[in-house]
């Protein structure tokens, strides 16, 4: 996540030159001399391997590459929030915030712990803020540090997107897409979409980060993840995230083959309340659906025997016991097809909306937009 970061002053020079179309006005806007601004543009062009401006008597005319990168750079500068921050400081502090220790950040970046210490200390001085507190061998971000870490993460996400767009324009491999995947999406929907996308864009790397909504929402908000797939949440709780429904999933009661309730003519609340249940945490929609179902059947939800969100663990527990769960059959398709487990329709129909969650106002690259379009296609063809 901390690949090469362009020089921050060079990015500011780019943005100003695109905005004003004049070296003189741009240099004044970013407090550089005209020769220094010209050199900054030249260095950025050298780093990118392309021309950013056509020089003429009327001024500086941005090329397509400059028009692709400039809006991303402008957004990144706004997230960084200070002209005093350097690319080295940005990279170092972002790595430290993710790793939680200088040793972990050193391993991630390849920078020495001493270099990281110095960069983070210089950043704190430049911003006039205490960003970290030491806790033994680990560190804890201060409130100011947490705000800066989020802003830097979003800045890096914008820069990655901008550089990917320029690379795609140049006909080079266009970066990577980082996907946060909740359990249901990993069963069939995401793999099918990934295979179809890879057939179209084999040079684009796909990275899947697994976790629950609670585990993935933070990295999504901070720019480490591009999009998140799984069960959607109530809009009122996600004022900074955008959700797009893709399809409806209808979970079933899952139990071992030969379970006493597998052949029952009807499932009654009293019988279900006597069973041991394996369910995900209280914050999940599935847990809420189950509680509503039990109350609709006239019983209070019993205590949960095992609270677990791992499908692999749940599978083993179901096969070896009389416990029940409620899950999408797609998540246990192999065991159901093999006859190890059976799926029974719940006495009250249960449905949950599955879709894509992104940051509010997120602007996908053309490559990211195409991946989302493929997710829509697969959902409509195979899951509608």
UniProtKB/TrEMBL annotation:
Keyword Repeat: no
All residue ranges annotated as the HTH lysR-type domain in the record: 6-63, 85-142
InterPro entries (UniProt xref): LysR_HTH_N, LysR_subst-bd, WH-like_DNA-bd_sf, WH_DNA-bd_sf
Assigned keywords, A-Z: DNA-binding, Transcription, Transcription regulation
Presence of keyword 4Fe-4S: no
Cross-referenced SUPFAM superfamilies: Periplasmic binding protein-like II (SSF53850), Winged helix' DNA-binding domain (SSF46785)
A GO MF label: DNA-binding transcription factor activity
Family that this chain belongs to: Belongs to the LysR transcriptional regulatory family.
Protein name in the entry: LysR family transcriptional regulator
Provenance organism: Novosphingobium olei
